[in-house]
Input
Amino acid sequence: MPGLPSEPSAERPAAPRRPRASSTCPCGSGRGFGACCGPYLDAERTAPTAEALMRSRYTAFALDDTAHLLATWHPTTRPARLDLDADVRWTGLEVLATEAGTADDVRGVVEFRAHHVHAGRADVLHERSRFRRQDGRWFYVRGRTPAP
Output
């Protein structure tokens, strides 16, 4: 699957890229990175909802931030390591639906489409992701491709 584990790349930068705080956040919220996903990726705050965590994880994929992806993956399903595919460029996110996932819930589901270009070809990842809140923090558990 594009953007998920692949062979390590010698060309990958040592530290994740970061947009300016005033730049539009990659998650598509329309807010500035510093007021949107930036504080979650920099571990200054935790995401208050499953959707906010999903948006921050999309942004982490777009910025090659494996540390945030691993830190927000539930321990029961988290891989030991994560090497992102350097040939994937994430180009847009559409949140299609959410179920629960508020600050008062312990479980949530977010359905989305993540647009990307892989090896020069446009593609879309359509997923229903499950999240769990544990000790006051949201974690990604797993995702499934919805039935057509």
